[in-house]
Please model this.
Amino acid sequence: MQIDFKHNQSAHCENGVVSNLMRHNGFDVSEPMVFGIGSGLLFSYLPFIKVDHAPVFTYRVLPGLIFNRFAKRVGVKVKREKFKNPIVAKERLDENLRNNNPVGLQVGVYNLIYFPDEYRFHFNAHNMVVYGKDGGQYLISDPVMEHTTTLTEKQLEKVRFAKGAFAPKGHIYYPVAFPQELELEKAIVKGIKQTCRDMTAPVPIVGVKAMKWVASNIRKWPNKIGAKHTNHYLGQIVRMQEEIGTGGGGFRYIYAAFLQEAGKLLNNNGLLELSQQMTEIGDQWRDFAVDASRIYKNRSAESDGYNKIADQLDAIAKREELFFKTLKKAV
Amino acid sequence: MKKNEVPQDESKLEKANIREMYYAVDENGEYTTELSTGWDPKTIALDNAIKQIEERVAAAKEKVLKNESSPLEYYMELNKMDLPILASYVGMWKWRVKRHFKPSVFKKLTNKTLQKYAEVFDVSVEDLQHIKD
Model:
């Protein structure tokens, strides 16, 4: 069985699944719109949690939040199910496919065979849509891939029941109820307000305060933990910022695309102007990544380089602070 | 970033026939998307991370060969895991898994427990007990 489902590639998996499922149900919502309304943009630094032997740096909100906020703000009801037993999980998936309902799935990346080895880490918050079954093969629409692909029953079970942090536990989700008409205007304003609040929050682990904290740590790390660890941490920052799924510049470009679309929809020229500024901020993040990668490529331990990128990060923090204060007043 | 500035560098993704999507502006300042084969700064970051893992695997192997640790630690590193992840896969407490890293304790493990680890690492019990040089 195969459901007539249109696969659109996206930058980020969660936005992509939501956007594709919405389109399947007759609502044309772009990836940036999902990301913006779902308040996906963030910066956060969690030095006390280690992943891959480095602290957690993130440029987006926690997995699942984007869809939940988006759904709530536009009035879509989402059904979510998790399972203990893989057999029940498989039956429920098959049942949905028989009912012509494509479903979103949370999966682990480590056993995802169509990803190159180098990309297979124990990361459990990847998202995809299953839209049919052909013999023993599930038909997969993975939003970060150009084309659809397939997985065997066993391969799919393995990724659905990956273990570790954020273990998916066979998690499936799909929208079940929609409003008569999608009213994006109010949802956009809500989404923007929340992002402005998060980014300027008076706590050290999120938003511009967290960026400043990272910047000050970059200055200290070389002496405190040595060049090797510092470089590993910097590499982690660059990967979280630029790796597949971010759309480039730590999601800042996707957000700029959202502001442009929102500005047109709301007839708000201020947002169009701010979209341009966000693009420039994205460019600044890219420059930061270039200079950071130069340090660990050359393995030069000159503290000058570290101070220079810390300065860059401080400058970005300052700019984003002003940006989000202005954005808040623009809607 | 302009659409024509979206990087098209060589990468591991390219080899697997994957291109990723970027958001960028066209010549009229309108947002659009463009596919990219890769970008050097992040390839360097990824290579660095992989090198780090390889070093960890090599260090773990040496420890096992010197009988300072059990092969479980080696296979854990080889599978890019850490203690919490491995414990969660075998369904045991972390302290228990850590105890199994002791060669003396590892030697006394029951076949059932060994089987559990072997399944997680996708190797035979034989391979689990004797890592190859």
